[in-house]
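Now for our target.
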Amino acid sequence: MTLQGVYGMSVITALTAQNTTGVFGIHEVPPEFVRQQLEAVFSDIPPDAVKIGMVASAPLMETIARCLRDYHAPQVVVDPVMVSTSGARLMAGGSGDLAAGTPAPGGVGDPQRPGGGDIGRNARPQPRGYGGCGEEDL
């Protein structure tokens, strides 16, 4: 990646206790701490693209969506991990419905997943520029 002039950055939304046979526990990171991580990333080296994976609950989805809108994230790929390869549910009940109805700013859904193409269906490109996602927004 370095040879291409790009950097990888991440925001941790959940920790899992798992192995090849299953998921034994999920610890969701509090939304406020996810917001702080997003602010740290966007205020240092603003990303040119964002990929969203496992988001375990509706409050986390709402926090992430709010921050991505506030920071005008230019390209967002929504690739939700709703069920593990071993069959364990990784999202709280009803979160999948919210994911499908929450437009990702400038985003697209993952067409490889059933329903994934619908997740970013209302997304529109956003102008570049970063305004922050302050605590007053939460």
